[in-house]
């Protein structure tokens, strides 16, 4: 289980990010969460896949800020925005800035905290 803990933490944080967005717009979390979260969850999975490929032959460190954290964050953000656009969901510039900031805080923040605590 310890091996999968970073992926679970990332997934929970992406879901929390999506839920917070719905709450901030007074939308139903239960009704809107699947529609809102799926693009970012797919982007997260792509990021995890990319980091795994990058690490092939080397020690895979999903808790590392670089390259794992940065690649996972960027993939989650860009993949999520592209999939939102393709599926007809909003991608306003203000939303992209907020999403980039909050996802960085969430996906990079816990990794930075682990690094400091180690």
Helix content: over 70%
Number of helices: 4
Amount of beta strand: under 5%
Total number of beta strands: 0
The figure for the number of domains is: 1
For the sheet with most strands, the description reads: none
Low-confidence stretches: none
Transmembrane segments: 7-25, 37-55, 64-86, 92-114
Keywords: Membrane, Transmembrane, Transmembrane helix
InterPro entries: DUF3054
Protein name: DUF3054 family protein
Keywords:
118 residues, DUF3054, DUF3054 family protein, membrane
Task: Please give the structural blueprint.
Layout (H helix, E strand, L loop, with lengths): L4 H20 L4 H26 L10 H22 L6 H25 L1
Helix pairs in contact: 1-2, 1-4, 2-3, 3-4
Keywords: Membrane, Transmembrane, Transmembrane helix
Pfam family, one: DUF3054
Organism: Nocardia caishijiensis
Describe the structure.
The protein has 118 residues and is mostly helical. It has one domain. The protein is 79% helix and 0% strand. The model has no long low-confidence stretch (mean pLDDT 94).
């Amino acid at each position: 289980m310890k091996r999968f803990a970073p992926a679970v933490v990332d997934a929970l944080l992406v879901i929390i990010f999506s839920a917070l967005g719905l709450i901030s717009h007074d939308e139903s979390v239960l009704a809107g969460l699947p529609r809102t979260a799926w693009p970012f969850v797919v982007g997260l999975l792509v990021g995890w896949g990319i980091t795994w490929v990058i690490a092939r032959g080397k020690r895979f460190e999903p808790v590392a800020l670089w390259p794992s954290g940065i690649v996972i964050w960027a993939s989650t953000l860009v993949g999520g925005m592209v999939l939102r656009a393709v599926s007809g969901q909003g991608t306003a510039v203000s939303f992209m800035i907020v999403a980039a900031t909050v996802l960085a805080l969430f996906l990079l923040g816990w990794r930075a905290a682990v690094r400091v605590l180690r």
